[in-house]
Amino acid sequence: MRVVIFGPQGAGKGTQAQRIAQKTGAEHISTGDLVRAEIKSDSELGQKIQEYNDRGDLVPDEIIIEMAKPYLAQTDAWLLDGFPRNEAQAKALDDALGDLGFGLDAAIAMEAPDDALVERLSGRRASESTGRIYHVEHDPPPEDDPGPFTQRNDDTEEAIRHRLEIYHEQTEPLKDYYDERGILVSVDATKSIPEVTEEVLRAVGEDG
Ligand code: AP5
Prior knowledge:
Layout: E1 2-6, H1 13-24, E2 27-30, H2 31-41, H3 44-55, H4 61-72, E3 78-81, H5 87-100, E4 106-111, H6 114-122, E5 124-127, E6 133-135, E7 149-150, H7 157-171, H8 174-180, E8 184-188, H9 193-203
Parallel strand pairs: 1-3, 1-4, 2-3, 4-8
Antiparallel strand pairs: 5-6, 5-7
Helix pairs in contact: 1-9, 2-3, 4-5, 6-7
The protein binds BIS(adenosine)-5'-pentaphosphate (AP5).
């Protein structure tokens, strides 16, 4: 299973990728997590990309492509969350997979209107100990997750709106890109978290 999952900020890409990975054993590769880990390490690269992340801008293509590439060959079952985000990245991904001798099985587009997304993101919390994503109302942390639970630097209303603009301008056209290649599957991301998981599992042929 080699699948990309994309959609507007807050559609639930990370939430679903974590759940599908847990249910299928596939690897969850999140370029957002890679970016945040690099920033947290305070490396030279981390310092360089922090301003892009905090503003809600895309990290330059050449940097993010080099960050993502090594993970593609590590296992034969993965969900790529947050990459590609524009046509240049989609082509770089096709090239990298071509070099490795395989292709994508599906590109999942999570569909949800912008209005629902700002509310979801402002209630988002991530566990620093487990990396799990929660929502204060829709998906509160269970008692066995010790936390602490933190908000992301880019979950300010200004950065969220900016990220959504970039999504519509640069990432949404990937629907046509993958549709033309016959691997696009659209999923209604406004449903409850478990319902969306069922839809995604069906889309990747893992619904038992
Ligand atoms: P990234 O971490 O990928 O952030 P994003 O794209 O802004 O997406 P989000 O994580 O905000 O949304 P999500 O869809 O994963 O939502 P989630 O599941 O958390 O990227 C961060 C930054 O890194 C970028 O801005 C950029 O700077 C850089 N970057 C990363 N990749 C890059 C690339 N390829 N190129 C260049 N730069 C890159 O859910 C959100 C909330 O909603 C949660 O609280 C969740 O509990 C809740 N929720 C989820 N589903 C539901 C549901 N069905 N019902 C109710 N609530 C729900």
